[in-house]
Amino acid sequence: MAQPNRLFVTLGSPLATAGVVLQRAQPRPARTPESVERWLNFWDRDDIVVCRPRIKDWMLPNSSGVVPLTRRVDSDGIWVHTATKYLKQPAVAGPIVEALKQ
Fold first, then answer.
1. What is the DSSP string of 35-65?
2. What pTM did the predictor assign?
3. Is the peptide bond before 27 cis (omega within 30 degrees of 0)?
4. Residue 33: cis peptide before it, omega within 30 degrees of 0
């Protein structure tokens, strides 16, 4: 069995792009990996890769009932898809720092 993943974070995830990404995800239907104990999915409305934050609607829970918890952040600039833009947000960095402290 895989080691538990206490916090799984996705930044600007294209998983909710049904016609392009979700149909190619494995396993099918797509589900939260069993080792994930908490999943935070962050998106920015200006991130053209994200489309719309529907990942929780299209991702089945794992056996513990974990599904992505989606939160919106607002970055400045034209190209906001970079991880550095997301990680500058306290809402993103805070949970990651807390998980690393544990």
1. TBS-EEEEEETT-TTT-S--HHHHSB--TT-
2. 0.84
3. yes
4. no
Beta bridge partners of 69: 40
| Per-residue confidence in pLDDT tens, the chain, 102 aa | 678 999 999 998 777 666 666 667 777 788 899 999 999 999 998 887 876 667 777 889 999 999 999 999 998 778 888 899 999 999 999 999 999 998
Neighbouring CB atoms inside 10 A of 95's CB total 16
Yes or no: say if 68 and 14 are a contact pair by the CB < 8 Å rule: no
In terms of residues, how long is the chain?
Answer: 102
Contacts of 85 (CB under 8 A, 6+ apart): 44, 75, 77, 79
